[in-house]
Amino acid sequence: MEMSRILHQHNGCSGLNDDGHNIRSFSSCSRLSYDTQMNNKYWLDRWERADIGFHQNDINPYLREYWQALALDSDSQVLVPMCGKSRDMLWLREQGHQVLGVELSRVAVQTFFSENNLTPQCIDEHPFSRWEVNGIHIMCGDFFDLREKDLAKVSAVYDRASLVALSPEMRKRYAHHLVGILPSASTDLADYAGLSSRRDARSAISGCHG
Length: 210
Prior knowledge:
The protein is about 40% helix and about 20% strand. The protein contains seven helices and nine strands. The strands form two sheets. The chain has a seven-stranded mixed beta sheet with strand order 5-6-7-4-3-8-9. A two-stranded antiparallel sheet has the order 1-2. A hairpin with a 5-residue loop joins β1 and β2. α1 (about 1-10) runs antiparallel to α6. The model is unreliable at about 1-30 and about 190-210 (pLDDT under 50).
């Protein structure tokens, strides 16, 4: 598949030697692993310190304004990557959608449910723990460990500023990984750093796919 080829080349973890045989570029793979570990540590530390000035207490107004343009069935499953404790997930659930959040920090996941007086069931499914209650499902773990089977029922993606939460070096990797594992029929509504429309948001993410 073309996307697999692009992702493979982008990751830079293999190549050909002078004889045309496959070799692994350990320096490239190690760099990706290091970048991921450093990014994860940064965000885990911020949640541990409750240094979360990025969190929005109110429902995103752009979500309210543009969501209906996607014309989804009410029971569609919506992916919310790097969801934190966003109350936008509650709004999406109120629209009838099944919500699938993905979040690295266990503190963020626990806080989301406790602050909203929800008592989830927690199931360990390595490499994630899955927290579920009333149609809201949050997979706690590393976004880059997601696979196609995890998103098989996803019809749409609501992405609230995930790109700006990543280092510049990781943004293309994030975009390629997301596109590579989403069902082909899924659609998205993105809001990156205050972009005011779905068209602007699509332009932003398409720029990261290139």
